[in-house]
Amino acid sequence: MKILWNIAICMLFCGILFAQEAPEFGGTIRVATSADISTVYPWEMTDTETMMVFQNVYEPLIRLKKHSADMEPALATHWEVSKDFKKWTFHLRKNVKFHDGSPFNANSVIDSLSLKKNLPAKMKKIDNSTIVFELEKPDAAFAITISIEYHSIVGPPTIKCYKEKCENPVAVGTGPYTFYKWEPTKQVILRANENYWGGRPFIDEAIFIPFKINSELMKALKNKTIDLAQNILPSNIAEVRKTPNLNFQSIPAMSVGYLAMNAEKAPFDNSKVRIAVSYAINKKELVNKYFYGRQAALVAKSCLPISMFGYHADLEERAYDPAKAKALLKEAGYPNGFETTLLPPPVARPYMPEPLKMAEDVKKYLADVGIKATIVNSKSFSTFLDVGYKGDYDMMLFGWIADTIDPNDFLTSLLSKAAIGTSNTTRWSHPQFEYMLETARNQSISARVKTYQEAQILFNNEMPFIPLVYAMQLATWNDRVKGYKLHPATRFYLQNIWISE
Asked: Residue 477 contacts by C-beta under 8 Å, 6 or more apart in sequence?
């Protein structure tokens, strides 16, 4: 008993020492990503890897907190909203400079956000540190919308570079890290901003390295040429857990992996065909095969993530039923099926760890109901995105990771008419769905939940994409890395982290 008591005291004492471990300045962190960045301009950003890098270079007016999905001031210190949710006033942080030394002020906000397409507001400068957003329609979620990375504020050199279409992109922000170098397909290097308004970050340099081949990533983690990987594959969990000096964490991700169908092209302009395809896909088998069952994902049934407020838990779930799929295809005028194409991502995604293999399984499921799909591979992730956004495809495997905790952003990005040509790859729109989105922006939380649940029922009856999986976030890092943990909204803030040799 005395031995057990001494062990307990030691464990408590050690825990106190660990809790009091002081952050250290200096060092380099090497971070693995699934793909290279696709742009340096916030208003063009849609993929996780690009946002992961530039969350540390650029800043919006407000942002999510370090370790939670709550909001906090960033380049704005505080803000007010009118009773009708149409006028938002932001008071800007004073004495902030961009990385090139130029001052941040109200003009900076207007110059940056004027480049964002479909900004739902007119901007009005009151003075150098006050700006008003005047919305045409009420939007109770506008503060959350303005916190998304593609509403970040950039410096004059970046705006000039964008307008002049310069050959070597320039990324100048106000964030804790400066953009030092980009070697396409090889690495992105950030360096500490010595004059950051929030205090100098701990780590001197961060290097982001894309890995297309999973075995190479695992080798790099083991030999410590990579310090941290925020999205490892489910198949790596067991290996990571038994590797000395590697830590592991998993939390639910606010994401959906799905099979999209181009609603502007026949036969996918027919909802019966889309619903038939939903019955043809064995989602449970995909989850068990590629996510090791419930260890890394759940079967999806809605267009909203299961962890997001407004999720409809009682939504009708379409179970795997090839016979029903064939019957619906016959009703839709395709008794013998049809030929189509299937576009998978060329690299692993958090919601789709082995997309090329998964595409082969989806192809098989489709063939079983008479649909002959030809898989079309992309040379790069940016090419894949370009094809998807332009609508030059029939079917595509894709997914979406929430930029915010609010359903408005998720549903608007994926299914609104305004997002066709970018994130709405299905190119589907519906007047009633648009009305629901608009209505919810001016409702209380409880009323919004009801509206979003009605929107999910409409989605389920139309099925522009087939929800496949709700994935978990899976991360690993070595013992050099301190202060890191996964963010519930998939943020990656370097200023939280330090290196201890």
From this structure: 227, 228, 229, 246, 247, 484
Classify residue 122 as exposed, middle or buried by CB count within 10 Å of its CB (0-12, 13-18, 19+). exposed
The answer to whether residues 102 and 177 touch, using CB atoms and an 8 Å cutoff, is no
CA dist list (Å): 415 to 135, 231, 331, 351, 408:
21, 26, 26, 18, 10
Helix (H, G, I), strand (E, B) or coil at 77: strand
Which residues are CB-contacts of 129 (< 8 A; sequence separation ≥ 6)? 91, 92, 93, 94, 105, 106
pLDDT given at position 14: 46
Q: How far is CA 248 from CA 97, 156, 173, 242, 245, in A?
A: 37, 41, 32, 10, 10
Closest by alpha carbon to 266, among 366, 340, 322, 325? 340
For residue 90, the tally of other CB atoms under 10 A from its CB is 26
Please name each of the domains of the chain with its CATH number.
Answer: 24-56+160-250+474-499 (3.40.190.10), 62-157 (3.90.76.10), 255-472 (3.10.105.10)
How far apart CA 344 and CA 399 sit, in angstroms, is 11
Averaged over 154-159, what is the pLDDT? 98
pLDDT tens digits, residue range 373-426? 999 999 999 999 999 999 999 999 999 988 778 899 899 999 999 999 999 999
Cα–Cα distance list, 235 to 292, 294, 371 (Å) = 7, 13, 30
Helices (H), 201-354: 214-222, 237-241, 271-280, 283-290, 322-331
- The amino acid present at 69, given as its one-letter code, is A
- Report the pLDDT averaged over residues 451-459: 98
The pTM is what? 0.79
Are 402 and 412 contacting, i.e. CB atoms less than 8 angstroms apart?
A: no
**Could you give the residue ranges of the DSSP H alpha helices within 85-130?**
106-113
DSSP-assigned beta bridge partners for residue 26: none
β strands within 184-269, DSSP E:
187-192, 205-210, 228-229, 246-252, 255-261
Estimate to the nearest angstrom the gap between the alpha carbon of 418 and the chain centroid: 19
Cα(169)–Cα(156) distance, integer angstroms: 13
For 295, the token pair is 């260890």
Task: Locate 447 and state its tokens.
Answer: 């009323």
Cis peptide before 157 (omega within 30 of 0): no
- What single string gives the DSSP state of each residue in 311-380? --TTPPP----HHHHHHHHHHTT-TT-EEEEEE--SS-BTTBSSHHHHHHHHHHHHHHTTEEEEE---SS
Q: Give percent of the chain with pLDDT exceeding 90.
A: 78
Q: What burial class does residue 288 get, using C-beta atoms within 10 Å of its C-beta: 0-12 exposed, 13-18 middle, 19+ buried?
A: middle
